[in-house]
Amino acid sequence: MKDSYLRAAFKLFDQDNSGKIDRDEICKLLSGEEFQGVYTKEQLDKAIGEVDENGDGEIDFNEFMIMMKSILWAAKFKS
Description:
- By secondary structure, the chain is mainly α.
- The chain is 59% helix and 5% strand.
- It has a two-stranded antiparallel ribbon with strand order 1-2.
- Helix 1 (3-13) packs across helix 4.
- The longest helix is centred in the last third of the chain and has 18 residues, at 61-78.
- It is globular and about 30 Å long.
């Protein structure tokens, strides 16, 4: 996947243009009816922690790229 596509996807999450995605930004995107009851805040914190390599509680672009590429790699071999 091209880095430009990943950058565009990252910008959708990074609503305050801080260069990082925090839990509040993810919650805003996942606040629609289709996501109600799908995850808990604890599950979301755990998911962020698994991606957050530097431990600052947020996901920067490099961490986002690593996460997305690993998801795509796993999906490629699953099918």
